[in-house]
Design goal:
This is IrrE N-terminal-like domain-containing protein. It comes from Amycolatopsis minnesotensis. By secondary structure, the chain is mainly alpha-helical. It has seven helices and three strands, in the order ααβββααααα. The chain has one domain. A three-stranded mixed beta sheet has the order 1-3-2, sandwiched between helices.
């Protein structure tokens, strides 16, 4: 996957298969560990992904992906539940995996940030026109595919990480269809 090149999924099945293959390549299993997924995706892409919990203004976006020449920042709403935060991060990763354009490409702005991101930068990113509906749907589909199959795999495994015989049969049945086993 080359940075900056927009990935075009022809249909939902191709998206599911592409995400499934990526998760296999990244050796992601159950239970889903979102920071580990970010770490392995960053290694795969050759650029760090920084997760930043931030009090994004409400109403407004719950998350933002801001890419610079050096690294990617995924900002997610600090003031929400952990489950919602995880979904926000997966949605923003969906934009990264699908090679959409990031919310911000101006590296000069980033010389002003950390340890905290100035509100003006966040607000400027929020004022962007937004992704088209197809890109938002695509990012949401990527997030959903990752989460639903992580949930399925988690239920198939026992507490010690080994599958039961029935779980192996069920995993095999889903392998060629939508899971990433």
């Amino acid at each position: 996957m080359k940075a900056g090149a927009r990935r075009r999924w022809r249909n939902d099945l191709q998206l599911r298969r592409g995400v499934k293959q990526l998760l296999r390549d990244l050796d992601i299993g159950a239970p889903l560990d979102v920071p580990l997924l970010c770490e392995r995706l960053a290694q795969h892409r050759g650029r760090p992904i920084r997760l930043v919990s931030y009090p994004l203004p409400t109403p407004g976006a719950f998350g933002l992906w801001i890419g610079t020449a050096e690294e990617d920042y995924v900002l997610y709403q600090r003031d929400t539940t952990p489950a919602h935060q995880e979904h926000i991060i997966l949605h923003e990763l969906g934009h990264i995996i699908s090679d959409h354009s990031s919310d911000e490409d101006d590296d000069d702005i980033w010389s002003q940030i950390f340890p905290d991101i100035p509100t003006a930068v966040v607000l400027r990113a929020l004022r962007r026109e937004g992704y088209d509906l197809a890109a938002e749907r695509e990012a949401e589909m990527v997030a959903t595919v990752i989460k639903e199959w992580a949930t399925l795999l988690d239920r198939l495994e026992t507490g010690r990480g080994k599958q039961t015989a029935a779980g192996r049969r069920l995993s095999g049945a889903f392998d060629d269809h939508q899971g990433w086993l």
